[in-house]
């Protein structure tokens, strides 16, 4: 029982974080059919915003709110700097500009802050543990699970029950047709980047909460995780991205529990092998999503 | 009333379109008044779809202009043109396949700034009109071809367009589906004061539906006027209709 609870909490908290990361990436991909490689830096921005506010004496929740807003602003900036000017030109151009923007942000952090890890303020509750059915677990894991459930529910509501959400789904299915109906394309795209930034900001807080420090390259792992989760789940489906996130967490956690100490350092190799097997079985990912995957 | 209607006509004047030097449309003029149905016909490659693309702003004009009631719309973005009251369909149905039928229909109303509740009401009314109510919550991608076509037209109507341009609406339909469509389309000008431009190869459908015909061949207008008269025009018979239609 204790083991099962421990395992479940680990899978759900890691999966929740992975699912939110994947969702933040796929919401932009769904509409533009382009991967935002500067996505990890949105998480970095949230982290450094926390670090810079560290000595301010502000309540933690206020700092967290500001950090998320900074990530949203960085998300919108990605659209304006890296995507909008070259969007109509070519996939290659956007690939390069999004990598360039990512490098620019990372190097700015290196140059103006430090290449070394910097501490971020964390509330006490992040370092506390609780015992549930005999399983000892950090409270932050439970916070992650709750945050993931709330955000996924909010996201589902936004996409199904609001004007913006319906317009975004229409644009994600067939961008050209949505425009022909009068859907404002630029507004939809900017909103997607803003939501992506919001998710990255929240994930950033939870992710950095595990480590307690921020470095310029902090966004690389979340980007990779988000990318793999969306590839497993299906690049065109938001549900797929969430399922992919949880599946990846299930694989990671299972390997953590089962691999011996010497093998554990090769965990990623095992994970990726499994991902390859999944893709051989379902090359389009688990959930196919809308068929019209044309770029605009 | 005739005067105010003609003021709000959709007017393409001397429209030309070029694709890398090749003239796809050459000085074509067409007027579509509210509450009338015009058939746009011509052999394959004569420029029919290009004319719709030109009117809806999807291809740039090499000459001429398009106006609604005297206001120029050519040069505006496709979205702006849609907001001016022109809606179109495509040869291949372009529904939002992973959204429900009712969401598809309300999406176009929403784009025109109505509230979610109003859009939902409008969508439900339209679906009832089109006998699609029981499929409202089905995914659009799972519908039969005929139903998809009807949803597409319902979606276009949810935007309350003044003009609807349909590119081969009956293509791929069986006879029963085609008959239902014909009935729906023939009612639109009367019930909604809508101006309809229809491209189709089904001459039976076109002749039963349209007040006027506009015939293109190789990007040029070769005839226009009342359907019966155009059908007897020797140039039209030679270019498009062939002996089959002349004998019909």
From TrEMBL, chain A:
Keyword Membrane on entry: yes
Keywords: Amino-acid transport, Cell inner membrane, Cell membrane, Membrane, Transmembrane, Transmembrane helix, Transport
Compartment list: Cell membrane
InterPro entries named in the record: ABC_transp_permease (IPR001851), BCAA_transport_permease (IPR052157)
Any one Gene Ontology cellular component term annotated for this protein: plasma membrane
Pfam families found in the cross-reference section: BPD_transp_2 (PF02653)
Keyword Oxidoreductase: no
Topological relation to the membrane, as annotated: Multi-pass membrane protein
A single GO molecular function term of this UniProt record: L-valine transmembrane transporter activity
Chief location category: membrane
GO terms under biological process: D-alanine transmembrane transport; L-alanine transport; L-isoleucine import across plasma membrane
Residues passing through the membrane, by range: 12-32, 60-81, 93-113, 142-159, 180-208, 223-251, 263-281
PANTHER family cross-referenced by the UniProt entry: BRANCHED-CHAIN AMINO ACID TRANSPORT SYSTEM PERMEASE PROTEIN LIVH, HIGH-AFFINITY BRANCHED-CHAIN AMINO ACID TRANSPORT SYSTEM PERMEASE PROTEIN LIVH
Family of the protein in this entry: Belongs to the binding-protein-dependent transport system permease family. LivHM subfamily.
Name the UniProt record assigns to this protein: Branched-chain amino acid ABC transporter permease
